[in-house]
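PROTEIN DESIGN WORKSHEET
SECTION A - STRUCTURE
LENGTH: 285
TOKENS:
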């Protein structure tokens, strides 16, 4: 069972790594190592044939709980696979494009007997994305997405909810990007009626990078429901192996609730390291 699972993960990661390289026609504007983005090239890229690529960060990381003695139960692997497929050839009204999105996140307790995958979260969605140009300069994108998230379990372990999300990614300057996302929740899970108290009602992110594009750091704050200053915090650092790749050495620190759906009410303070494959322009959080 372990060999079959590991083989499947290797195949998926290899496929994602292959898809992460953009077509030659788009490579110049999507790599943007000099921090400049040509608006005409970006427009052409959006109008090209349906493009399959990365959506959020794709990573494979391992590490222990912080603040507690590391054990087999609180030291695990977390990996995420996230892809996007444009499904319209033509530009839709208001200069938008229709996409399918899919993200899968898994927690894998490899130190325990039988190495169980303790929580799998499935997050498909469909939405409209609009590139934003100001004074003939590409400055970011807006997305309106209908998405579902669940853990595929039944009985008392079932967790699920739906969201209508509005997200924005903005290039402040070549070294700084900001992002925000707010959602209208539709909670259909019987066993997670209070999920907003733990998984939040909106999030904001900031991502900075060095001039040579080798070092990247980001901070994401997810506001939990309530008037107090209660946030889930995600701090990430990445070092790119070479200028010709988008594969990075990756460190992620998660502090808060809702890291996974099964134990969304449980507080986690977790530090993990590994490898991440990033989208060429934006990491959608």
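SECTION B - SEQUENCE
RESIDUE ASSIGNMENT:
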């Amino acid at each position: 069972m372990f060999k079959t699972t590991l083989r499947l993960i290797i195949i998926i990661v290899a496929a994602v790594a292959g898809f992460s390289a953009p077509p030659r026609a788009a490579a110049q504007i999507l790599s943007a190592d000099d921090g400049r983005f040509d608006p005409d090239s970006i427009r052409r890229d959006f109008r090209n044939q349906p493009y399959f690529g990365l959506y959020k960060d794709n990573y494979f990381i391992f590490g222990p709980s912080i603040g507690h003695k590391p054990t087999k139960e609180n030291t695990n692997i977390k990996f995420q696979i996230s892809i996007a497929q444009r499904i319209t050839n033509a530009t839709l009204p208001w200069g938008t494009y229709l996409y399918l999105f899919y993200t899968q996140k898994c927690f894998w307790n490899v130190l325990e007997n039988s190495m169980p995958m303790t929580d799998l979260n499935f997050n498909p969605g469909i939405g409209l994305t609009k590139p934003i140009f100001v004074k003939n300069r590409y400055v970011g994108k807006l997305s309106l997405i209908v998405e579902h998230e669940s853990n595929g379990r039944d009985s008392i372990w079932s967790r699920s909810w739906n969201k209508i999300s509005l997200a924005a990614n903005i290039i402040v300057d070549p070294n700084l990007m900001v992002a925000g996302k707010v959602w209208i929740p539709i909670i259909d899970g019987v066993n997670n009626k209070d999920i907003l108290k733990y998984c939040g009602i909106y999030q904001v992110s900031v991502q900075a990078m060095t001039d040579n594009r080798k070092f990247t750091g980001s901070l994401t704050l997810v506001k939990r429901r309530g008037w107090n200053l209660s946030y889930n915090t995600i701090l990430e650092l990445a070092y790119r192996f070479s200028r010709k790749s988008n594969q990075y050495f990756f460190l992620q620190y998660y502090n808060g609730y809702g890291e996974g759906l099964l134990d969304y009410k449980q507080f986690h303070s977790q530090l993990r390291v590994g490898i991440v494959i990033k989208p060429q322009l934006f990491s959608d959080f």
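SECTION C - NOTES
DSSP finds four helices and 13 strands in the chain.
Residues 1-6, 8-34 have pLDDT under 50 and may be disordered.
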